[in-house]
């Protein structure tokens, strides 16, 4: 399977926030899977706090699916500077960014974290809606200021 790029990207010149098409996989039967880098924080500056990342993970996964039915997975990067989103079929980076901003705006008005009970989540105590909202606000402002690509 051909990979466009992965760890070959130079993180020292990476801007944030930005949406980047990180990978396109052409599957044997003709299907396409894409992986997007939803970068919230410039690499090797101050990463997001784990509680914020965790809450954002729950909320982004929920709200982006309002607008897209081809999302396979949204998962946090271990470096806590962004998320990976896997989707099937071909998409435009600009459309993904629009849906991401929609989700972040929804987060600002959220009062409850979905799936954050002991039964539903692997670390239900490690959540912060306040910090998730602070991060969402910062990322929205970053996109609005054109600090992308
Ligand atoms: Zn969880």
UniProtKB/TrEMBL annotation:
MF annotations from Gene Ontology: iron ion binding; S-ribosylhomocysteine lyase activity
Highest rank taxon of the organism: Bacteria
Cofactor: Fe cation
GO biological process: quorum sensing
Top EC class, one word: lyase
Function: Involved in the synthesis of autoinducer 2 (AI-2) which is secreted by bacteria and is used to communicate both the cell density and the metabolic potential of the environment. The regulation of gene expression in response to changes in cell density is called quorum sensing. Catalyzes the transformation of S-ribosylhomocysteine (RHC) to homocysteine (HC) and 4,5-dihydroxy-2,3-pentadione (DPD).
NCBIfam families reported for this sequence: PRK02260.1-4 (NF002604)
Record's protein name: S-ribosylhomocysteine lyase
């Amino acid at each position: 399977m051909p990979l466009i790029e992965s760890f070959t990207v130079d993180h020292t010149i990476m801007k944030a926030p930005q949406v980047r098409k990180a990978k396109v996989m052409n599957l044997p039967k003709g299907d396409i899977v894409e992986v997007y880098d939803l970068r919230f924080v410039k690499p090797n500056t101050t990463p997001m706090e784990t509680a914020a990342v965790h809450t954002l993970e729950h909320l982004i996964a929920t709200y982006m699916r309002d607008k897209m039915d081809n999302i396979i997975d949204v998962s946090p990067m271990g470096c806590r500077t962004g998320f990976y989103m896997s989707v099937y079929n071909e998409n435009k980076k600009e459309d993904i960014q629009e849906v991401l901003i929609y989700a972040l705006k929804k987060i600002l008005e959220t009062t409850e974290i979905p799936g954050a009970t002991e039964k539903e989540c692997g670390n239900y105590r490690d959540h912060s809606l306040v910090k998730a909202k602070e991060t969402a606000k910062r990322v929205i402002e970053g996109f609005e200021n054109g600090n992308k690509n």
